């Protein structure tokens, strides 16, 4: 296994290097023009199969299977997939999927350029570009040095928070559709409670999702999975540990009772509480603590007029080069489709900026060459004049 790992590691580096030099091959010529392409093909052995490669290094059938099952990721049998795809299992094993806890964005000495991130472990990862997908207000107030703009962000209006219940139910609930909204009888008052008083409406509207109705794998056969989202007010301030007591178990139990009573009275479901096998819940403080959401606001900053378009926090930091933001609180806004659109915009922005830097470097290089040539010509002219002065001066004497 050690020898196999060494070989795959060596090949993996070559494959990544090749990919980074050319993202696509529009012609056979483009492929063949890659540096060392034939040597790489010999090393990668695409004429063998994944399973054949594994057989060369492992005697254990289980190990061969463990190191070739990744062929399914490209929709192929390991007995037919080219041996090159042995890199897949290596990438998954060595690189893995990373969810690093970042404690700081590293800046240059002059504080004007992002240089990387510092992890919770103390490890520092350096980079030319840093894209932050954490809550934007949290990033400004906790991951970057203090600044007046960060303080203003904590004063901007936010979206709502929620008390959310996640229920495993021991019986089918045909009375509920996959998506159902229960509207409050006192509609206006419910919104005033959320956005003016930062509290729980006495008569809340709420949303119920039954994912098992669409995706059978969300719950065992004959059972249901329910997600209940009750919009409530966000926390009044960004302070650590603030308002924890205001959203304790008593409030959660009261909200749960309101939800159960409303569902039962409007759908005819009887004694729903008795059918709940397992329950977890989230509240404004837990949204803030677990996910670093400023004031527990589940949808980021509000979309009020002062938080729209040009007035919404920008995707690119105004004074720190190489630092960009994606997510609900930056431009263009909140919601999964809009956040995905924002991610696309950031990718395009980064690409333009990188190309612009490259173009500027080329322009500067061209400028340096121009001035070098000009100065060289001037030097030759001066030297020529000096020589002529000496020669003709001597002749005149």
UniProtKB/TrEMBL annotation:
Coiled coil ranges: none
One Pfam family recorded for the sequence: Amino_oxidase
GO molecular function term, any single one: oxidoreductase activity
PROSITE patterns per UniProt: PHYTOENE_DH (PS00982)
Residue ranges crossing the lipid bilayer per the database entry: 369-388
Cofactors, names only: NAD(+)
Swiss-Prot/TrEMBL keywords: Membrane, Transmembrane, Transmembrane helix
Ranges of residues in domain Amine oxidase: 101-350
Source domain of life: Eukaryota
Protein's name according to its UniProt entry: Phytoene desaturase
Native species: Aspergillus fijiensis CBS 313.89
């Amino acid at each position: 296994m050690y020898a196999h790992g060494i070989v795959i590691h060596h090949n993996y580096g070559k494959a990544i290097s090749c990919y980074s030099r050319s993202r696509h091959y529009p012609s056979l010529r483009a492929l063949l023009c890659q540096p060392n392409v034939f040597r790489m093909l010999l090393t990668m052995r695409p004429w063998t199969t994944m399973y054949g490669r594994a057989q060369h290094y492992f005697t254990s059938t289980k190990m061969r299977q463990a190191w070739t099952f990744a062929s399914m990721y490209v929709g192929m049998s390991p007995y037919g997939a080219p041996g090159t795809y042995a890199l897949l299992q290596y990438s998954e094993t060595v690189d893995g999927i990373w969810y690093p806890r970042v404690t700081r964005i590293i800046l240059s000495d002059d504080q004007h350029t992002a240089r990387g991130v510092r992890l919770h472990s103390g490890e520092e990862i350096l980079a030319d570009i840093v894209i932050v997908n954490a809550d934007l207000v949290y990033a400004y107030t906790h991951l970057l040095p203090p600044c007046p703009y960060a303080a203003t962000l904590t004063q901007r209006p936010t979206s709502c928070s929620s008390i959310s219940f996640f229920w495993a139910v021991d019986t089918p609930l045909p009375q509920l559709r996959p998506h159902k909204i229960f509207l409050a009888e006192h509609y206006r008052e419910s919104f005033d409670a959320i956005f003016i008083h930062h509290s729980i409406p006495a008569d809340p509207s709420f949303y119920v999702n039954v994912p098992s109705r669409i995706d059978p794998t969300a719950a065992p056969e004959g059972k249901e999975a329910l997600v209940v989202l009750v919009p409530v007010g966000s926390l009044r301030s960004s302070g650590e540990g603030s308002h924890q007591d205001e959203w304790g178990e008593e409030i959660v139990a009261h909200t749960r009772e309101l939800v159960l009573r409303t569902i039962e009275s409007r759908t005819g479901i009887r004694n729903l509480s008795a059918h709940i096998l397992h329950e977890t819940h989230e509240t404004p403080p837990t949204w803030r603590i677990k996910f670093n959401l400023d004031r527990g606001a589940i949808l980021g900053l509000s979309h009020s007029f002062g938080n729209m378009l040009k007035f919404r926090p920008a995707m690119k930091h105004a004074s720190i080069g190489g630092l960009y933001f994606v997510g609900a609180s930056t431009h263009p806004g909140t919601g999964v489709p809009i956040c995905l659109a924002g991610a696309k915009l950031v990718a395009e922005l980064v690409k333009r900026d990188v190309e612009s830097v490259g173009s500027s470097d080329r322009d500067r290089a061209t400028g340096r060459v121009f001035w070098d040539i000009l100065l060289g010509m001037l030097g030759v002219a001066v030297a020529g004049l000096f020589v002529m002065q000496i020669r003709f001066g001597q002749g005149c004497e």
